[in-house]
Automatic annotation (TrEMBL):
<dbReference type="GO" id="GO:0035925">
    <property type="term" value="F:mRNA 3'-UTR AU-rich region binding"/>
</dbReference>
<dbReference type="GO" id="GO:0005829">
    <property type="term" value="C:cytosol"/>
</dbReference>
<dbReference type="InterPro" id="IPR036291">
    <property type="entry name" value="NAD(P)-bd_dom_sf"/>
</dbReference>
<dbReference type="InterPro" id="IPR047618">
    <property type="entry name" value="QOR-like"/>
</dbReference>
<dbReference type="GO" id="GO:0003960">
    <property type="term" value="F:quinone reductase (NADPH) activity"/>
</dbReference>
<dbReference type="Pfam" id="PF00107">
    <property type="entry name" value="ADH_zinc_N"/>
</dbReference>
<dbReference type="InterPro" id="IPR011032">
    <property type="entry name" value="GroES-like_sf"/>
</dbReference>
<dbReference type="Pfam" id="PF08240">
    <property type="entry name" value="ADH_N"/>
</dbReference>
<dbReference type="InterPro" id="IPR013154">
    <property type="entry name" value="ADH-like_N"/>
</dbReference>
<protein>
    <recommendedName>
        <fullName>Probable quinone oxidoreductase</fullName>
    </recommendedName>
</protein>
<keyword id="KW-0560">Oxidoreductase</keyword>
<dbReference type="InterPro" id="IPR013149">
    <property type="entry name" value="ADH-like_C"/>
</dbReference>
<dbReference type="InterPro" id="IPR020843">
    <property type="entry name" value="ER"/>
</dbReference>
<feature type="domain" description="Enoyl reductase (ER)">
    <location>
        <begin position="87"/>
        <end position="398"/>
    </location>
</feature>
<keyword id="KW-0521">NADP</keyword>
<dbReference type="GO" id="GO:0070402">
    <property type="term" value="F:NADPH binding"/>
</dbReference>
């Protein structure tokens, strides 16, 4: 009986197998697959026939096969906050996660600082729906590039970059990001500042400069004026030449709003903000209301607007506003919009322009970013609880 002599060239060791021969060429792949049993630590990825030759006898073949193998790659692991069920801050779990390698068009970033935003609370509660459960929350971070995908240009290991918006998942020590969603961070901007201002700063930019373009001499009303976005709206609105009216919940927050450029500050727990706005504007109303509070302020905000004024509802920290009949805005021919940042930064050029204007205003001193609270990333549940209970002012940052 003849034999088919099969030589397997792998990393180590070389092995000759003697396999029964038949009148036809035995299926090579079925025998090569046996190598995974002989050498379990060297998984077979593919097979390549490099040469064949026949020698003495029609039933005797010598076939040389090379098994392309590689040692098992170590799995990149890190820590992240994960949400397995919707609910309160307690559903935020600190867990081990697999990071993975960047694919084409992607980079891996080791986060140095992560911004906390109310939109993270909305996703945690289910007000906004995450694509899957479990998920990693977070939509803002700044970090250092640790790997780039194949063929990628324009980004390299060691670059300091920041991003805001999609994809969600910044509550992680490291993450994979599309390279076209990150922006370079100027050397003059500290990573903690960058992480705290990307989402909030670009939100303020599109609200003031594009959604309703504020002009000198106009009057604007900013709810939650001491919050992360509210603080920037007050500063930027003042710099644009507008008269800024802010609402806050405490005297301490009122003092901050004043420092940030609000010309008039209303303690809404002690005063009727609609009556106060009417008094401040001599009954004329304001050109635009920037309302991130939602249910508790929505109807009052509409009442504060002047003829053809604009209601910009960009958040709902107190809950979703009640349904509104069109007749409610017809009375003064009002404009009502519910914008989101992602719809104003659709293209790469829009993203770079928005981030560039924010960074330029920080560098020039127009914007002073208040990072009043930092928490370890592992303590994200406490940070969420403090944010929801309004125990925070300015920006909140999580540190991995």
């Amino acid at each position: 009986m003849g034999f088919l002599k099969l030589k397997l060239d792998i990393i180590q060791p070389n092995q000759n197998l003697l396999l029964p021969n038949h009148s036809h060429l035995v299926s090579l792949s079925s025998h090569l697959n046996q190598s995974s049993k002989l050498f379990p630590n060297y998984p077979t990825n593919c097979y390549k026939i490099t040469s064949t030759s026949s020698t003495l006898g029609t039933q005797k073949f010598a076939v040389r096969a090379v098994i392309a193998t590689q040692p098992p790659s170590p799995v990149e692991m890190g820590k992240a906050i994960r949400v397995h069920e919707l609910g309160g801050p307690e559903v935020l779990k600190w867990e081990d996660v697999e990071i993975g390698e960047p694919k084409e068009g992607e980079i891996r970033v080791k986060n140095k600082a992560i911004g906390l935003n109310f939109i993270d609370v909305y996703f945690r509660k289910g007000v906004y729906k995450a694509a899957t459960l479990p998920f990693t929350p977070g939509m803002e971070a700044c970090g250092v590039v640790t790997a780039v995908g194949p063929g990628l240009t324009g980004r390299q290991v060691g670059d300091l970059v920041a991003y805001a918006g999609v994809p969600m998942g910044s509550y992680s020590e490291e993450q994979i990001l599309p390279a076209d969603k990150v922006v370079p961070v100027p050397e003059s901007i500290d990573p903690v500042i960058a992480a705290s201002v990307m989402l909030k700063g670009m939100t303020a930019q599109f609200l003031l400069r594009r959604c309703f373009k504020v002009e000198p001499g106009q009057t604007i009303l900013v709810h939650a004026a001491a919050g992360g976005v509210g603080s920037l709206l007050c500063q930027w609105g003042n710099a644009l030449g507008a008269t800024v009216i802010g609402t806050v919940s405490t005297k301490e927050k009122a003092a901050q709003a004043k420092e940030d450029g609000a010309h008039h500050v209303i303690l809404y727990k002690e005063e009727d903000f609609v009556a106060r706005v009417n008094e401040i504007t001599s009954g004329n109303g304001v050109h635009v209301v920037y309302d991130s509070v939602g249910k508790d302020t929505f109807e009052g905000s509409l009442a504060c607007l002047k003829l053809r004024g604009c209601m910009v509802s960009f958040g709902q920290s107190s809950g979703t506003p009640d349904p509104l009949p069109l007749s409610a805005i017809a009375a003064k021919s009002l404009f009502l919009t519910r914008p989101t940042l992602m719809h104003y930064n659709v293209t790469r050029d829009e993203l770079l322009a928005a981030a560039g204007e924010v960074f330029a205003n920080i560098s020039s001193g127009v914007l002073r970013v208040r990072v009043n609270h930092t928490y370890p990333l592992s303590e994200a549940p406490r940070a969420h609880a403090d944010l929801e209970d309004r125990r925070t002012t300015g920006s909140v940052v999580l540190i991995p």
